[in-house]
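Model it.
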Amino acid sequence: MESLPPCPRCSGEYTYEMNNLVVCPECGHEWVPAADGASGTDGGVAGGERVIKDAVGNVLSDGDTVTVVKALKVKGNPSGIKAGTKVRNIRLVDGVDGHDIDCRIDGFGAMQLKSGVVKKA
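Modeled.
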């Protein structure tokens, strides 16, 4: 049985493979393992930096503008966020419970969204 490397972020030993990534269930960190000790082949992206993708697979980065693809219920607000709402100047964070986008939505204020409910505009 092949042994997987420990997590570079939290040193967790319970890592597992998912497609071509190695995932740490303790901190949620995802990375592409280096092939036979080769490093520096990631095209300038810092090693261990996770890639956040939107609902259709586009890579997101800080400052992007995204569009909400499905209606979202907001606790304490009867109307919620409608599909098609544009959100400008997002910030990618390691949020709680899968919420990895920090943003400000007009009429709602500061919120955290999951990357699976937005599309890059």
